[in-house]
Amino acid sequence: MPIEFYWVNFIMTFKRLAAPNILPPVAPEKPFQQTHHGYVLADEFHWLKDADYPDVKNTDILDYLNQENTYFKQVMQPHETLVETLFTEFKNREQPVETSVPWRENGFEYRWYFPENAEYRIWARTAVNTNNEQILLDENIESANTEFYTLSHLSISPNNRYMAWSVDDTGSERFTIYIKDLQDDCQLVEVITQTSGEIEWSQNSTGFFYTLVSEEWRPYQVQYHELHTAITRDKIIYTEQDQSYFVGIDKTQSAEFLLISTGSHTTNEVYIVPSASPLQPLELMAGREHNMQYDVDHAQGYFYIRTNDQHENFRIAKTAQNTPELKAWQTWITGSDTHYITGLVSFATYAAIELRVDGLAQIQIKPYQGEAHYIQFDETAFAAHIGNNPEFDPAFLRINYGSMITPNSVYDYHVNNQTLTLKKTQQIPSGYDKDQYITERLWAKAKDGAKIPISIVYKKGFIADGSRPMHLYGYGAYAMAMEPEFSKTALSLLDRGFSYAIAHIRGGDEMGYNWYTQGKLAQRQNTFSDFIDCAEYLIAEKYVSRGNISISGRSAGGELMGAVTVQNPDLWRSVILGVPFVDVLNTMLDDSLPLTPIEWPEWGNPLADKSDYELIASYSPYDNIKQQAYPPMMVTGGLNDPRVTYWEPAKWTAKMRKLKTDQHLLVMRMHMGAGHFSSSGRFARLKDDAEEFTFMLLAHGITA
Which of 487, 524, 484, 537 is nearest to 359 (CA)? Predict the structure, then answer.
């Protein structure tokens, strides 16, 4: 239907989404309190945390969560037609049969593809210069008897004979590793459980490294498994004792070295070992006592190191492989106030460097001999990243590219003549005309004078007179940038007269590493204020009017949603809090949780520091809910979520129901068989999105 239809309908039904004549669940209140630094912290919904977590068996808790799910279904049932309409729109933008751009590695060409209307991928390979494709793994068969299925890694041994892959079938992000002999077409009896999912083979293909997670879900120990031997004989390579450090494994692009990295959000250290001699003693490059971050790659006898030891926006250092220690590092690319280096891959003859300039993700090519250059693109606002490049000396550099109006695309960049070859553009089977949409890069002014970038997209015919609805998205944490990328689902909003905007607020690293540090610890309020200031700017510029902005965010972005909802409830038409980290104070006080010690550098340690306690208490969304009117809210969670535990959205919903003074709708959808990332199938995820978009549209009076 034309935009005008939805606009008129919206104007005629301009009202909040009211609660239906169905009584919502009421969570019982049970007295609980704890005392820290002389402050008494009461929490009448503390009981929603199962004492046996991650094994949730408490019947009172499960009954309450199931009641909330029943209420959600009852509320949504009258609007099932709109859910199905949106789901059909989303599904029609997916290719029924989709395949990846093939990639070459070690004499084979690999690809994945979705069979027609399948939820999951099939992985396959073909020997170069042959036509005999071999099916490696069919996720649809593997997932047939599970509600949830996620493949983390699929890794082929260097001799091409063995395949190891890791799977999570609960959403708990505890992956099980399986091994198959591709030559004999048989699965090995060895099965490794409770891993982080990472797999790195030794050069001789006799075994691989993997990482175990603790009972609290902390990746803490690296082990080496030798094929055809019992798991009990696996060799412990490294154990991290510090509860605030997570361990990860990787391999250099040259494949000559295996890397073991252990670190927190602010500090790490890297150990190296030759992949040809995986059991020899590890060699440390730079220890954690230097209080810096760094990552490592290798090419032609040298290590290349991206590090923030001399500049907060990182430099790239270089050192001979026989002198990997910090004192031998020599600057190869200096740090810069204007160029924020975010990634590095060392190929045979050049390094590909990811960096941000004016907040935009770009790629620089730096030959080991010769001048550096940027890969050039026509659009003024975009995101470009290094793609899938398994080979050390490739004929081209594969990159990923997109913008808010350009569907995600895969290019091959030919370094020698600096030309791009388009290999694949995300197809929209139901139709998409890029020329019918407009994107802008806007700049809002924060209260302290900082300039905050905003990416916005809308359909031609959009009039900036304040009458149209808006969806505003934000995250703002962990130095994670929100890219101005294409969204297939957002088209359903744009075609109904919405604008869609992303606020690139502090806490992310869009404008450099300092942009991140200005949104953490004592400056955390900047993140919330920036989001509110972006909304105020968009209102002042008449892209939207006050009270006509629907907002959403997930995880730490859900914390953002909670904070701006309690701080400025009148600004928003509706709020979607996805797996929201809203119970910040209680979580940071609970050092038995897997993410608490490693999160202290991000939020502060209220257990040890009174000022940190006071700081977090001042903004923690759950603790700042008060008696007032709030906009309609939809809250989501996952029972098996190890990142934001299920009780955070549950407690938020329960306490909000108790204190809010309005009659606006508040619902919670708790996935009882999934984790942080909700449904795992490609169409099942779209159904989740359709429910959330339905909630948003109804808040704006749009019913079709």
Answer: 484
State pTM to two decimals.
0.92
Residue 627 has pLDDT above 70, yes or no: yes
Q: pLDDT digit string (tens) for 401-425?
A: 999 999 999 999 999 999 999 999 9
3-92+431-699: CATH class:
alpha beta
Residue 233 is encoded by which pair of tokens?
């004989």
| Distance separating alpha carbons of residues 155 and 538, to the nearest angstrom | 47
Cα 338 to Cα 323: distance, rounded to the nearest angstrom: 31
- Look up tokens 């990846």; give the residue: 100
**Cross-strand pairs, 114:** 98
- Rounded to 10 deg, the angle between the 525-540 and 556-567 helix axes is 60
Q: What whole-number distance in Å separates Cα of residue 554 and Cα of residue 562?
A: 10
Residue-wise pLDDT tens digits, 36-93: 999 999 999 999 999 988 889 999 999 999 999 999 999 999 999 999 999 999 999 9
The 3-state secondary structure of 611-650 reads: HHHHHHHHHCCHHHCCCCCCCCEEEEEECCCCCCCCHHHH
Catalytic positions are 555, 641, 676
User: Is residue 283 classed as helix, strand or coil in its secondary structure?
Assistant: strand
Bridge-based pairing state of the strands 633-638 and 572-578: parallel
Proportion of the chain above pLDDT 90, given as a percent: 88
Measured distance CA(484)–CA(120) in Å, rounded: 27
The answer to whether 71 and 670 are in contact (CB under 8 A) is no
pLDDT at 14: 36
Comparing CA positions, the residue from 170, 118, 165 lying closest to residue 148 is 170
Q: What's phi and psi for 577, nearest 5 deg?
A: -105, 100
In degrees rounded to 5, what are phi and psi of residue 513?
-65, -30
Task: Report the C-alpha gap between 481 and 223 in whole angstroms.
Answer: 33
Q: Structural domain boundaries of the chain?
A: 3-92+431-699, 97-145, 148-263
Cβ atoms of 503 and 452 within 8 Å: the answer is yes
For residues 563-588, average pLDDT? 97
Instruction: Answer whether residue 9 shows pLDDT above 60.
Output: no
β-strand pairing of 175-181 with 350-357: unpaired
pLDDT at residue 7 in the model: 32
